[in-house]
């Protein structure tokens, strides 16, 4: 009881604090030179909009969602190629590590928000399938001399124990990204246990207590109201469900941080222009990383939303952080 | 209509932070909400880049353009990132020519919206405007397909680059070259000799690699030398106010520019058959 009261009080304080800070468009300013003074007051007094950050720009909150949509609409076709080029393939390792930490067992339901091209969902289905095969092998080994009756019942239950039990739902606000994901699924021949849903992370089109695992990989920094997305995550998870978030975060080591910054700002927009023909979207991408809260602050936000046992794990020296929390 | 002032100009620092200079023109319409045409940099579409970024872009776009010659945006980026000195040279030549100077001050743009196609179609055969229109129709091209300049850090030079791109089609008409590979290479040789842009030189050297032997022969024996010679001796092609010369006879215009008619007549029917 006391714990939840404490959480409530903390949340009220945070909200009031945030209201005061809202126009400052600050995150935890990574490199102070970049954030502060470039704010152009582009919003109209008549509508009285609150403003937020879009990369290093300041935009009205209503604008941000539209602009983010446009960015991902433009990059959807080349999204996977660009990910490989920008991270030199390391993003695959990060996603594999997410799955490893998740360790899903056959039968769980996954909701992958901002799942776009389906990387997490595909890995989830593969993992669950391999877990299933493992279980079958273990079962087969334990029954040394199965009777014909046992063998026949095993065959008949095989189809039922199939991937239909484990379901992955990919939810994304952007139709283009989902389209690319669906095409990938078709070309890989994966269809069972996979659904594609258009939806907003701040307002998910699902009932309460539906999913065992909620993941959001490299998507939450594009959401306008992160706290709302976290609350929605809490709502749709079953009690005992797990929230997992992969996101770019703050690099602790100063040497690595310097290299990372140089690489981000010099190389990535150039790659965006050469490979995808779109400089501005990738400029937004590296700026939005700088605007996202650091590991501790984000952990606090997750706790404020009502999750328990919130932990984070740094990958690649803090370039990426894996946050995890439970709904109890 | 209300204007909101210019804000914040940040200099590039050692940490390679983003350089943003914003000019906002804020328009309040009667409809709910508003539109604003904000642009970073010195002109609409301008993207500020550090020297390192320009170098990376030059290399990257070169590789991309070689791998896929249909990526016109990469050819454009290559031209912008490598053409600084040549653009300065071109701009100075334009300034020293009275007609060129007029162009630099008036800044005309060649677009479908600015061309009066019906009037040009009614011009007599042999006139520049009529032949240009014929060229557009035969080769199925439009003047609106030119990419905007992004990486040139000087507003005037950016216009010179844009003008060069838009004049390219007119050059095809003046030289009588279609848009197939051979015609493009011939025009590139002319442009390389005229402008000295490294991108043109690169295109001139690498373009012939995609031609078959009979066309190569034609290029090296007649078309090539003709293009080079005329490129060197002709008047600066950017200094001509084409938009005011649609009625002029094409042959007259060629003579004025010091360009000989092509030695070989190429037809547009040879499109896309390297």
From TrEMBL, chain A:
Pfam families: Ubie_methyltran. Pathway: Cofactor biosynthesis; ubiquinone biosynthesis. The keyword Manganese does not apply. InterPro entries: SAM-dependent_MTases_sf (IPR029063), UbiE/COQ5_MeTrFase (IPR004033), UbiE/COQ5_MeTrFase_CS (IPR023576). GO terms for biological process: methylation. S-adenosyl-L-methionine binds at residues 117, 172, 200-201. It is a peripheral membrane protein. The keyword DNA damage does not apply. It is found in: Mitochondrion inner membrane. It catalyses: a 2-methoxy-6-(all-trans-polyprenyl)benzene-1,4-diol + S-adenosyl-L-methionine = a 5-methoxy-2-methyl-3-(all-trans-polyprenyl)benzene-1,4-diol + S-adenosyl-L-homocysteine + H(+). GO terms for cellular component: extrinsic component of mitochondrial inner membrane. GO terms for molecular function: 2-methoxy-6-polyprenyl-1,4-benzoquinol methyltransferase activity. Its EC number is 2.1.1.201. Residues 135-164 are annotated as: Disordered. Residues 141-156 have a biased composition (Polar residues). Its main location: mitochondrion. Keywords: Membrane, Methyltransferase, Mitochondrion, Mitochondrion inner membrane, S-adenosyl-L-methionine, Transferase, Ubiquinone biosynthesis. Methyltransferase required for the conversion of 2-polyprenyl-6-methoxy-1,4-benzoquinol (DDMQH2) to 2-polyprenyl-3-methyl-6-methoxy-1,4-benzoquinol (DMQH2). Belongs to the class I-like SAM-binding methyltransferase superfamily. MenG/UbiE family. Component of a multi-subunit COQ enzyme complex, composed of at least COQ3, COQ4, COQ5, COQ6, COQ7 and COQ9. Interacts with PYURF; the interaction is direct, stabilizes COQ5 protein and associates PYURF with COQ enzyme complex. This is 2-methoxy-6-polyprenyl-1,4-benzoquinol methylase, mitochondrial. It comes from Dicentrarchus labrax (European seabass). The lineage of its organism: Eukaryota, Metazoa, Chordata, Craniata, Vertebrata.
């Amino acid at each position: 009881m006391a714990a939840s009261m404490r959480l409530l009080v903390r949340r009220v304080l945070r909200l009031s604090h945030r209201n005061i800070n809202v126009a400052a468009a600050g995150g935890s300013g990574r490199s102070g030179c970049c954030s502060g003074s470039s704010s152009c007051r582009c919003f109209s007094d008549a509508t009285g909009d609150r403003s937020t950050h879009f990369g290093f720009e300041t935009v009205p909150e209503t604008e941000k969602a539209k602009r983010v949509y446009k960015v991902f609409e433009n990059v959807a076709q080349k999204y996977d190629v660009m990910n490989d080029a920008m991270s030199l393939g390391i993003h695959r390792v990060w996603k594999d590590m997410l799955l490893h930490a998740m360790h899903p067992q056959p039968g769980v339901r996954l909701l992958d928000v901002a799942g776009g091209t389906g990387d997490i969902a595909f890995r989830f289905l593969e993992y669950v399938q391999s877990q299933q095969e493992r279980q079958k092998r273990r079962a087969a080994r334990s029954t040394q001399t199965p009777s014909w009756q046992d063998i026949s019942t095993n065959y008949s239950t095989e189809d039922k124990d199939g991937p239909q039990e484990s379901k992955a739902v990919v939810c994304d606000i952007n139709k283009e990204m989902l389209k690319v994901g669906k095409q990938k699924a078709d070309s890989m021949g994966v269809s069972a246990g996979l659904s594609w849903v258009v939806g907003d992370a701040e307002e998910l089109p699902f009932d309460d207590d539906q999913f065992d695992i909620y993941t959001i990989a490299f998507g939450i920094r594009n959401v306008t109201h992160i706290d709302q997305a976290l609350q929605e995550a809490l709502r749709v998870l079953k009690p005992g469900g797990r929230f997992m978030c992969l996101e770019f975060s703050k690099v602790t080591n100063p040497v690595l941080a310097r290299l990372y910054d140089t690489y981000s700002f010099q190389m990535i927009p150039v790659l965006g222009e050469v490979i995808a023909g779109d400089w501005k979207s990738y400029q937004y991408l590296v700026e939005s990383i700088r605007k996202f809260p650091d590991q501790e602050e984000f952990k606090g936000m997750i706790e404020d939303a009502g999750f328990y046992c919130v932990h984070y794990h740094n990958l690649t020296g803090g370039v990426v952080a894996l946050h995890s929390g439970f709904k109890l | 209509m209300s204007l909101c002032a210019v804000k914040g100009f940040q200099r590039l620092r050692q940490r390679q932070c983003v350089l943003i200079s914003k000019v906002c023109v804020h328009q309040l319409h009667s409809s709910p909400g508003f539109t604003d045409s904000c642009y970073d940099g010195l002109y609409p579409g301008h993207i500020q880049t550090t020297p390192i970024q320009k170098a990376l872009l030059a290399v990257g776009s070169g590789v991309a353009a070689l791998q896929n010659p249909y990526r016109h945006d990469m050819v454009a980026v290559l031209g912008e990132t490598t053409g600084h000195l040549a653009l300065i040279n071109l701009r100075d030549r334009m300034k020293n020519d009275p007609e060129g100077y007029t162009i630099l001050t008036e800044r005309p743009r060649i677009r479908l919206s600015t061309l009066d196609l019906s009037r040009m179609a009614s011009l007599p055969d042999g006139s520049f405007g009529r032949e240009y229109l014929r060229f557009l129709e035969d080769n199925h091209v439009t003047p609106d397909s030119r990419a905007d300049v992004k990486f040139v850090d000087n507003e005037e030079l950016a216009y010179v680059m844009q003008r060069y791109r838009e004049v390219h089609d007119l050059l095809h008409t003046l030289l009588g070259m279609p848009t197939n590979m051979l015609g493009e290479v011939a025009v590139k040789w002319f442009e390389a000799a005229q402008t000295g842009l490294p991108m043109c030189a690169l295109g001139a050297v690498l373009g012939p690699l995609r031609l078959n032997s009979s066309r190569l022969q034609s290029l090296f024996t007649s078309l090539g030398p003709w293009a080079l010679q005329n490129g060197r001796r002709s008047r600066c092609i950017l200094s001509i106010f084409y938009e005011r010369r649609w009625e002029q006879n094409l042959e007259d215009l060629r003579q004025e520019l010091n360009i000989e008619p092509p030695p070989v007549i190429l037809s547009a029917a040879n499109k896309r058959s390297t």
